[in-house]
Amino acid sequence: MYLQTDSQTMDDLRLFSKADTQGIYDMYNHSHTRGGQTIMEAMFRKPLNNREAIIQRINTITAFVNMKATFPFNSATLDQAEKYISFDDHPDGGTKVSLSEKEIQNGIMAVIDLFHALRKYLESAAIAQVKELEEERQAAIGLLKDPVFAPVFNEKPNAKISFAAVTAFDVLIRSKEKRKVLQLLHFIYHIDVYVSVAQVTAKHHLVFPVVHPKGTSILKVDGVYHPLLKNAVANSLYMDPSCNLVFLTGANMAGKSTFLRSFSTAVYIAHMGFPVAAAAMEFSVMDGVYTTINLPDNLGIGASHFYAEVLRVKKIGQELSEGKSLFVLFDELFRGTNVKDALEGTLAVCNAFTTRKDSKFIISSHIIEAADDLRKKESTAYYFLPTIMNGAVPAYTYTLQEGVTNDKHGMIIINNEGIMDILKQGNKGGKRLNKQL
């Protein structure tokens, strides 16, 4: 039911914010409720690998986009109801911590108001048109019609209730029928998520992917870009059943990592049933998505960067050996070792990958010599991100092209910064370099 992935991939794609860096989750999440935020996060952590489930979520969100939906409940009322429902009296160091009488009364009034608003919403034409949620809608209607909740609807919204009624309602809502109340809140939380994603879809002009059955080996993304980058350059990459490995080259700063992150983010988000930052997308459902863009050394087990890479390849190899279809991405495979070993390792791994026709692989590398040997494999495609030299100054188009490039301009950048001249000046120059850095 769920796509296989791991924390390395989530970190690579920057799904969740860290420090001052915004995550992809933050862009999609404009939920009004804490419950909605929790469900949204769960969707990000557990994408789907079932075509029917993905399509159902796509169709559900599309319906909310088409109706230009807004959140139909009062956020303050929901917040108060959430706090009241989720509070459990509990002993704390011998002292019993409880809600005050006023807090209980306000919580009950919030639940009563919410029940009335929910009944009105469930009976509205808008939600009735979302056929993908019809089963959940009818279940919620059934819960509201349960005779145990008759006292709730006998009260009018915003009405003051007596002390005796408060006690009775508190027992009803937080004790006897709490499970049913939580079920109704759960329905509201999902509506919160769908409305949030629908509004983001319209605001950012995102598109829903076309979902192909597992095993059909299609991965086509047209005009993909990174959703968090301003003035992002869009690129297209098509991988059909005849192509299962892309070998990507390009100089440092040419945009390889950004493209790889943009493309793999689209693949990941598509498996959530969410809209993606692209002009169009088609994909076959995979069993798992694994990326390796910023792989850290594992100092805890004394592993060097190269050994961490080896362990990463081993993990993916084990998944593939079990017959799983995977989307796999390595940015500069085996960068942690010498050029000779990197060449031999890259060739060995890439050649093995080309035999797995039901999976898709993208490998970026500075080892362009590997391309000569890989050309023997018909299932391999070659792309590069070019560098244009304006005299001694490199410029980048960030636009994907077919072929292999041997662009290298590391020394040009070093010389442009005057580093060698500074170092030649001895200690004085070194101090100046430190000051500049």
UniProtKB/TrEMBL annotation:
Keywords, comma-separated and alphabetical: ATP-binding, DNA-binding, Nucleotide-binding
InterPro entries: DNA_mismatch_repair_MutS_C (IPR000432), DNA_mismatch_repair_MutS_sf (IPR036187), MutS (IPR045076), P-loop_NTPase (IPR027417)
SMART domains recorded: MUTSac (SM00534)
GO MF terms held by the record: ATP binding; ATP-dependent DNA damage sensor activity; mismatched DNA binding
One GO BP: mismatch repair
SUPFAM superfamilies, alphabetized: DNA repair protein MutS, domain III, P-loop containing nucleoside triphosphate hydrolases
Residue ranges constituting the DNA mismatch repair proteins mutS family domain according to the UniProt record: 243-431
Pfam families: MutS_V
Superkingdom assignment: Bacteria
PANTHER family: DNA MISMATCH REPAIR PROTEIN, DNA MISMATCH REPAIR PROTEIN MUTS FAMILY MEMBER
Name listed for the protein in its UniProt record: MutS domain V
